[in-house]
TrEMBL record:
GO MF annotation list: ATP binding
Protein name in the entry: Helicase
Organism of derivation: Corallococcus coralloides (strain ATCC 25202 / DSM 2259 / NBRC 100086 / M2) (Myxococcus coralloides)
A Pfam family of this chain: Helicase_C
InterPro entries assigned to the protein according to its UniProt record, in alphabetical order: Helicase_ATP-bd (IPR014001), Helicase_C-like (IPR001650), P-loop_NTPase (IPR027417), SNF2_N (IPR000330), SNF2_RAD54_helicase_repair (IPR050496)
Domain Helicase C-terminal: 819-976
Residue intervals of the Helicase ATP-binding domain: 430-577
Length: 1260
């Protein structure tokens, strides 16, 4: 019965677009390409009608922007499109008015015969227009009410019906091979259940099973997940219901490497299959319910016997029996082409025979209840939030997943075994490689980084093999003195990669120079030891930075040497593409800001520390000692002693002198202040590439730097010895003549220093002027460009140097004698002593003085090559004897040598950079030191000899402590007072010592480690009790996933997600239903600390919990791309952008073949609608294939790159790719082998979900 008409329609409210399929195709094309002129749609004049129809339905707005409703329709599953459009039409003005006019609630009830009457009464239309619009509405309603699914295609092209693909691949997108595919007539699905022509086996079987109290299912064990969901949702209220379930085998024979000889073997096979695959955490409540059903006898479970494998698929109910090929999976019931037969109970004979077959197979099965329970418990367990969090922490920290890359059986055979912190470090570094791409390993000196690094490289290599690389090109670059050590450690891993000295990189005439520079651009794995050697820009650094390795591994104990800006060089080595833009922005401020601004701005310091943590494995000596103390037996040395760092005792010795020498020192400092430093200038003045300031600023910096360097070298030489300063002024020969004429054999072949002669030779030779805007005559000082002024300035500098030389020879030798006396006393006390100075002449003079006092002394300056290093190891290495000896070492011996038989190091000159200070001490301060205490002696100079303007070492030490944790003076030292940069107080090394000693026993502070926040979740006063964590860590129970639910004020979720093949896990946090996901470990840890605690209440599994679990799993699915490393995210974003640009160009060029190829590729690689049960292309593999395509272009760009002020990322290739696109055949070949990936919910290791109290708004 019609209702009273309440609305009057205008012509604009009624559509006039003939075909809804064409409308959908045009809308899809427009939503993706912002272009209505779709290829294949030749009725250009009809496009306005279709656009207007989209507006009528609310799919686009008045400005032609696709609305939320339009996006939902475009993204809808093809099987749901008709239903979605029906709802959209019903909400339109036309649909609402028609439903109201006819007095019905559903468009399926509308009478198509009455459409013209409806229009005549509700719209003022002329006859022809009314007839035309009525025809359109009839067509629309017939199409909307058609039960067949909508199959999208090209607009304007006749739809050719195809079967749903068996799996996703590019083959699925090919057109049908026969022209008459659309003419196939499929049998009735009720007799032969199939998935063709819009039918599905699922609908038939589901109806039969729902209508029956007694059910027998015979399925393959791959059906487990869907079976659990089916059983949990089934009603068992009448008391008569019962389901019998028999799991048969799956046709995976090619994967079985051994013959199965007994019944337990199939149970093990089922278990292995599901433990490797995982199960969706959305079934946590379902598992509990199914367990109860089996326990109470409502469900009986059997398993096929090994002697009689079962491959049958039978669904027996009291109404009908279906048997055939369809397994009880989404693919078998809905997706794949399947062949089944169904016999209803009215076909008594066939039904009875099929029933007999099913019952006979059932009787041959064996009871599976206990093994079934064991499997369910292992797959997914409801736990307390503490246990779920403990499991999430262990997944990160213990690195069980890493065993597939570093075989544990191989590690277990090592003698001596790896230390626990080395195993842990390997796992953590592999986690960073998996989730970031490159890693900085900066554990303290003496912790065994080389051995750990060798196994890490082995793990990175094996990981690349598993990711599809045939044999990843690997390069290891080290300082020449440690090449043999690396080769020895790599032999142990059974992968003896070639180790390259970094020397040939800087020597273009070296025989291996061309080989190395060419290989660097093609490698997949790059490992650089002592990476601090590449902090300063040089040709050698540029050649290393030109790599685009998939994994870069940097090893250095001193990543920050002079200041936080050193991190910029490390980022270049790691590859800026591996770091998120937020990290690059924070680090980029170091380029633009002053040297100290980043240190003194607390907020910036905090952000900088957080960003460093993303790519670092950093354990200070205090932290490593804490690990060793917690597992003493694992650190037992062959001597019976437990490995740990010795107590580090920094002490200070006086270098006093008479007042006259102090006065001479002040005069020398004043003369040095007047030096112009002309000899420190280069031979040309030219703006560096990337300089972002003015030419005037560049000139000012050059002049100031030259002056500062000149003064620095004078005072540094003076602090070493009078002879060192005289050498600096007049040269080596003159210095020996003046201070040690009798040491003719010790002078060496090279005459260094001699700044007087240098100034005289340079006089009048102005640097080449390459500044473009700044004119020479406008520049001061004029000696930069005026030869005569330059000559006078050089003469003035030379005269100042002569005066300095005259003063230094008048000084007494009190300071030098004090140092020699200290060495004599330490020789008597310790026997074996290492003494370091940066000036060889000082060391030679000291050797002579010591020998004159009957002290055995040897000179270690790098001369003598490998033989000299072997002699040093024989005298001071672990196996050395106890013969007293003083080794006078230059800094060439501060790196790469283990001299821990000595227990005493003396700084004859005080280092000003962190690397030198740490490495000198690191020769004896090692975990396998035989000593309980090592003493590091620092010179205490008179005030006149101290740096007067800035205490560089203290500033740099405090910056390292703030950013990554320091080793020089213990990292837990929080008592050091703030040192203001304008402070002109001279260094008080005794004060530095007392602060370090007072802080020795404090708790270590985790600063520069990617996993510090995770470790902070475990222990006393933390969220996870140490005992619980230890029980989880050492448990032998197999548990794939666990879920905990807690009561909270608002909904939130914490998830731990395994990688591909359950690889390296990630932490994910959602702070609300619609909140953006958080992936940073530190931020997630902080969010958990804010929400969990002693008063947090666990909840039992319930429908309410399942609802929130499903919601947050869906959110995770939507965010899955963001789980990838940043480089791959950048690569995918670039791929999408350039593909859209290429498609747009193909449209303009009417290149239909390229448009087809690109459109199919884009739809395949980036599907708009993700279905929970359907595998999708592995985006990591998509990104990898894309990067391989781009490799030649990247190689070309980086090979010609010079020093820059900004980081280079993939985004810079977008413009060139639009100008020179990649050809379609190359794209098809690259992406045709991309594997499919199981849904992300099957890779969840642990989950905690916060459930708001009843009545609390759920849309927070």
């Amino acid at each position: 019965m019609r209702r009273r008409r309440t609305k009057q329609l205008s012509s604009d409210d009624i559509p006039q677009a003939n075909s809804l399929p064409r409308l959908m195709a045009l809308l899809r094309h427009y939503a993706r390409y912002n272009d209505w002129s779709a290829p294949g749609f030749h009725q250009i004049q009809a496009i306005p009608s279709y656009r207007k129809a989209c507006r009528i339905l609310g799919l686009i707005d008045d400005s032609d922007a696709v609305t939320a409703t339009g996006r939902n329709v475009v993204r809808a599953d093809p099987r749901e499109v008709r239903r979605e459009l029906s709802a959209v039409f019903a909400r339109s003005q036309c649909g609402q008015t028609w439903l109201e006019w006819q007095g019905v609630a559903d468009i399926r009830s509308l009478d198509l015969e009455q459409v013209e009457t409806f229009l005549s009464e509700c719209a003022a239309l002329s006859g022809p227009i009314r007839w035309r619009k009525a025809t359109v509405l009839r067509r629309w309603l017939k199409w909307l009410n058609d039960p067949a699914p909508f199959l999208p295609g090209t607009p304007g092209r006749k739809r050719v019906r195809q079967a749903d693909p068996a799996q996703l691949s590019l083959v699925d997108y090919a057109p049908p091979s026969t022209p008459d595919a659309a003419s196939v007539t499929w049998p009735h699905a009720a007799r032969f259940p199939h998935n063709e022509g819009g039918a599905s086996v699922d609908e038939i079987v589901k109806q039969d099973l729902a209508a029956s109290e007694q059910v027998l299912l015979i399925v393959g064990y791959a059906s487990l997940e869907r079976v659990i969901d089916f059983l949990a949702k089934r009603s068992f209220t009448s008391g008569e219901e019962k389901v019998r379930l028999l799991f048969g085998w799956e046709p995976f024979e090619s994967q079985r490497s051994v013959y199965r000889s007994h019944d337990q073997s199939i149970a093990d096979e089922v278990r292995d299959y599901w433990l490797s695959r995982g199960i969706s955490v959305t079934l946590s409540g379902a598992l509990i319910r199914v367990r109860e059903l089996v326990e109470h006898g409502k469900v009986e479970v059997r398993l096929a016997q090994a002697r009689r494998p079962v491959h049958a698929k039978i669904y027996l109910s009291q109404q009908a029996v279906t048997l055939g090929s369809s397994n009880f999976t989404a693919q078998g019931l809905k997706k794949q082409s399947e062949a089944n037969a169904r016999f209803g109970n009215q076909e008594k004979r066939r039904y009875r025979e099929a029933q007999q077959l099913a019952e006979g197979i059932w009787l041959q099965g064996r009871d599976y209840k206990d093994d079934f329970f064991s499997l369910l418990d292992a797959l997914l367990r409801q736990v307390t939030w503490q246990e779920a969090l403990a499991r999430g922490c262990a997944a990160i920290l213990e690195g069980e997943w890493a065993k597939k890359y570093v075989p544990p059986d191989l590690l277990d055979q090592l003698a001596p075994p790896l230390w626990p912190h080395q195993r842990q470090g390997i796992s953590q570094a592999l986690w960073i490689l998996e989730n970031v791409g490159s890693v900085l390993v900066s554990d303290a000196t003496g912790s065994g980084k080389t051995r750990m690094g060798a196994w890490l490289i082995r793990g990175a290599f094996d990981r690349q093999l598993r990711m599809g690389q045939s044999r990843p090109a690997t390069m290891i670059v080290t300082p020449p003195q440690v090449v043999e050590l690396w080769e020895k450690q790599l032999q142990e891993t059974a992968h003896p990669f070639q180790v390259h000295s970094h020397g040939p990189l800087s020597n273009s005439t070296a025989s291996r120079h061309a080989l190395l520079t060419t290989a660097i651009s093609d490698i997949e794995i790059l490992a650089v030891d002592e990476a601090h050697n590449f902090l300063n820009w040089s040709d050698r650094t540029r050649r290393i930075v030109s790599h685009y390795a998939d994994n870069a591994l940097l090893f250095t104990a001193t990543p920050i040497n002079k200041g936080a800006s050193d991190l910029l060089a490390l980022v270049e080595l790691l590859g800026a593409d591996n770091l998120p833009q937020s990290c690059l922005d924070v680090l980029g401020q170091l380029r633009r800001g002053t040297r100290d601004a980043s240190k003194r701005n607390p907020e910036h310091l905090k952000r900088l520390r957080e960003e460093i943590r993303r790519f670092s494995v950093r354990r200070t000596r205090a932290e490593l000692n804490a690990i060793a103390e917690s597992q003493i037996s694992a650190y037992r040395l062959p001597t019976g002693q437990s490995a740990c760092y010795p107590r580090h005792e920094p002490l200070y010795y006086s270098c006093d002198c008479r007042d006259s020498d102090s006065e001479f020192a002040r005069e020398i400092a004043n003369l040095a202040e007047r030096l112009k430093g002309i000899s420190r200038l280069g031979n040309r003045l030219e703006l560096p590439r990337g300089w972002d300031s003015t030419e005037e600023a560049y000139v000012r910096r050059v002049v100031a730097s030259a002056r500062a360097l000149a003064r620095y070298h004078v005072m540094k030489s003076l602090r070493s010895s009078s002879a060192a300063l005289f050498e600096h002024v007049h040269g080596t020969s003159a210095a020996f003549e003046k201070f040690a004429a009798h040491l003719t054999d010790s002078r060496g072949k090279t005459d260094t220093g001699n700044m007087v002669r240098r100034c005289e030779e340079l006089a009048g030779q102005v640097p080449e002027w390459r500044l473009k805007r700044l004119k020479t005559k406008a520049v001061e000082p004029s000696w930069l460009w005026n030869p005569e002024a330059h000559r006078r300035a050089c003469e003035e500098d030379a005269e100042l140097y002569r005066q300095i030389g005259q003063l230094v020879v008048r000084m007494q030798r009190d300071r030098e004698e004090a140092k020699i006396d200290r060495l004599v006393r330490l020789y008597a006390e310790h026997g074996q002593v290492l003494a370091f100075d940066s000036h060889v002449i000082t060391l030679k003079l000291f050797q002579n003085a010591l020998e004159s006092k009957m002290v055995r002394a040897t000179l270690l300056t790098g001369a003598g090559g490998k033989a000299a290093k072997r002699r040093a190891t024989q005298s001071f290495g672990l196996g050395a004897g106890s013969q007293p000896l003083v080794a006078l070492c230059s800094d060439a011996f501060s790196e790469g040598l283990n001299l821990q038989k000595a227990s005493c190091v003396v700084h004859l000159d005080a280092p000003t950079v962190i690397r030198t200070a740490e490495q000198r001490a690191g020769r004896v301060d090692r975990m396998d030191s035989p000593h309980k205490t090592v003493r590091i002696w620092w010179p205490k100079d008179p005030e006149a000899f101290m740096p007067q303007k800035r205490d560089l070492l203290r500033e740099r030490h405090e910056m390292v402590a703030d950013l990554i944790g320091a080793n020089l003076c213990l990292p837990e030292d929080e008592l050091q007072p703030e040192v203001h940069l304008q402070d002109t107080t001279p260094i008080d090394v005794r004060e530095l010592a007392s602060r370090a000693l007072a802080s020795r026993e404090q708790e270590p502070v985790e600063l520069g480690d990617a996993f510090g926040a995770v470790r902070g979740m475990v222990g006393r006063s933390s969220l996870v009790d140490s005992a619980l964590y230890e029980s989880i860590r050492t448990s032998q129970a197999e548990v794939v996933s666990c879920v905990g639910s807690v009561r909270s004020e608002e909904p939130w979720a914490f998830l731990v997600v395994g990688g591909r093949d359950r690889g390296a896990p990630r932490w994910v946090f959602f702070a609300g239903r619609d909140a953006e996901p958080i992936f940073d470990l530190g931020e997630v840890a902080q969010a958990l600390k804010q929400r969990l605690g002693p008063h947090t209440r666990d909840l039992d599994a319930s429908d309410e919990c399942e609802e929130f679990i499903r919601h947050f799993v869906e959110r995770l699915r939507q965010s899955e791309r963001r789980l990838l490393p940043v480089r791959r995210q950048r690569a995918l974003a670039l791929l999408e952008r350039v593909m859209d640009g290429w498609i747009s160009r193909a449209n303009k060029d009417v290149d239909l073949n390229r448009r087809r190829v690109l459109g199919e590729l884009r739809s395949h690689l980036f599907p708009e609608h993700l279905q929970p049960e359907v595998p999708t292309p592995d985006l990591r593999s998509v990104a990898d294939q894309w990067l391989r395509l781009l490799r030649p272009r990247i190689k070309q760009v980086l090979a010609h790159r010079t020093k820059r002020k900004s980081f280079w990322t993939l985004d810079a290739l977008e413009g060139p790719l639009m100008v020179e696109p990649i050809e379609s055949p190359d794209l098809e070949r690259a992406f045709s082998t991309v594997p499919l990936l199981q849904p992300v919910e099957q890779r969840i290791i642990a989950m905690i979900v916060g459930i708001p109290s009843p009545g609390v708004a759920r849309d927070r």
